[in-house]
What does this fold into?
Amino acid sequence: MSAERAPGLLAGDSLNLRLARRSLGLIALCLVLLPFADLAITTHDPWAELERMLSGLLHPDILATQSLPHAIALTIGFALWGTLLGVVLGFPLALLFPRSRLLRGSCAFVRAIHELFWALLLLQVFGLSAVTAIAALTIPYAGIFAKVYAEILELTPRAPVDALPEGVGRLSRFVYAELPMVWARLSSYTRYRFECAMRSSVLLGFVGLPTLGFHLESAFREGRYPEAGALLWVFYLMIASLHLWGHRRLLPWIALGSLFLLGPWPDIDGALLWRFVSVDLWPKPLLEGNWSGLWQWFGEIPDLLPAIGNTLLLGLMGTAGSLVVALLLWPMASHHFGNRPTRMAGKGVLILMRSTPELMLAFIFLLMLGPSMLPAWLALSLHNGALIAFLVARHADAIVPGSHALPASSRYTYELLPRLYGGLLALLFYRAETIIRETALLGMLGIATLGFHIDSSFAYLMFDQAFFLLLITAGLNIAVDALARRYRPREIADTPGERGHPGREATC
Amino acid sequence: MRWFVACLLILVSTAATADTFRFTAIPDEDQSRLEERFDKVADYLEDQLGVAVEYVPVKSYSAAVSAFRNDQVQLAWFGGLTGVQARRLVPGSRAIAQGKEDAEFRTYFIANHDSDVDTQGDDLPKNVQGKSFTFGAKTSTSGRLMPEYYIREQFGAPPKSLFSRVGFSGDHTRTIALVESGTYDIGAVNFKVWDAAVADGRVDTDKVDVIWKTPTYPDYQWTVRGDVDNRYGDGFTDKVRQALLDMHDPELLESFPRQGFIPADNDDYQPIEDVGEKLGLLR
It folds into this structure.
């Protein structure tokens, strides 16, 4: 560290100073732009609503939902088949991934569009069917698997391959010498993705597919909080018990069994599908080669720039908010602080918050606070902050403190945080891509981000406009990802762990 | 492995199920009320038509249209605008019946008492300007299309520049709830849903009340796909229409809520199509 000249406040070239500058810059930018955000609370008595919700959560009514087992089975079935087909498609793509720029671009594109947007798009050709649900998960997941599997394969130790005699075929080499070395990582990541798929599958109910989210949305919207509470508990139990029923031997049977429930399968109308892909999705002037008409078409898109601005602003606010929440919450779950009961409670709270998808949290806050950016901001910050805090707490637990005599505040400030901060910030920057993806999506709830207009375009059956807005969303997402990668602290050595990579656990 | 294959075979054999006649309805009210309503209607139609009939619940207006387009439902209880959308997407499909009230439908503008908007006059009160306002669903006829049309006609300005905040509640029940709770000052709501809510005591008229009633326009209708005669036998469309017109059980009708059904055809909805195009919601 540069000790020769006395550095000014935050000046200097040490790693932590650079990190501090970046974080403060992020928060300062957020504060400067905050006045442009619509943060009004429009409900008259949010506390009464919150009280009713909490009372529903505490007095759940499990019998209120008709066909609850069916909804649970469909949620699992969609998630399982979506993940499975994603692996089937993604694995071969992973092998080609390092070699093809086109493939990398396409994968980045399909990843950049949220599962729910895929569902809205597929809904138009496959209707409310299992095909829509499964494909909505499979398509983005194939892109994700291709990228992550490729990263994992890249790290395959060379020794076993070098030890093979000459003339061993490419396939044998791969199956016997390379694959076994990375198998554990591949399968552990796949398992993590399945958990993500469970959450996405629940969310598919928000656009009308008959999963748990379908009933959850209705129950919350109509204020039937005991039913909503019961459904939330069912959801948490499903996620928490994943390691019990998500066993390797059991999953094929669950997959097979769920097939019985996924029907009726739609008759796919080839002509309709072709018309949708070749005509409906494209601006008419473009297909006719009418350039001035295209300009006019472009002008008819309502509020494009404000929507992009709002999406970016909310994304920035969500990222800064997550940083603050993560900094505040991680000690709750770390063994350096508190006692056993407080840690259990802290861990519980963090797990609940990180398991609840942003869309669901935002929806609940929206009912409480009314339609503005505030509920979305809270949801993004709490969910992502809790997720990061949970991982940071785990990293913290691997640290052996030098002195036990320090009071908690000093331990936090002087001993632990300096060693954890780089990792925390790296996680945050990994998370930025997901945050902006979610931000666009939250528009579907009526917040003025891109999702609002995408939802409207689908409602008005203007698929060309919807598709164009989806392209903008994807572009925005890819740009933010590139920016985040540029500023992500690189000097931080990846914390060794089961999954080998800190960012990978922050991707859904 | 043997068991696996056996199960797979059973699965394939059960996949070919009988041709069920399915219908849906735009989700204009609370889901629970809709399911109660339409499961009974499904039973009634099954009796009358002699085929298995199933109600398919949907979450959004556009999902109802999409299910109709993809032949996942063959019959739908659409609003004026969604019906036009659906019939444009599925050539040959027809409006066959509407509620007795649907030939002369209305939108009620409702306001929270604390918002100090003048009560009923011949026009929408001038001092709605600057208040917050919510529509229903984005493609609702009575909750979006017609109220927006009358707002523009009266004020010569789009709702966005007239009100301090414009929202889309999603359905009529929610519009009433949001205006009653004061989240929005003003809302536009389907008059049948409002009347039924008042009659059932589900709304507190000390907190929210009607401030203006629009002129009349055509709204809800049953629309059927053009290919049902081929699939379910000649004259099936007429049988469906007759079954709907013969629906006299007050319990069934009350849940719509309509006094009964009368014949309708595509041309009845030309005014809706014109307004939809004018507002840029159809093209």
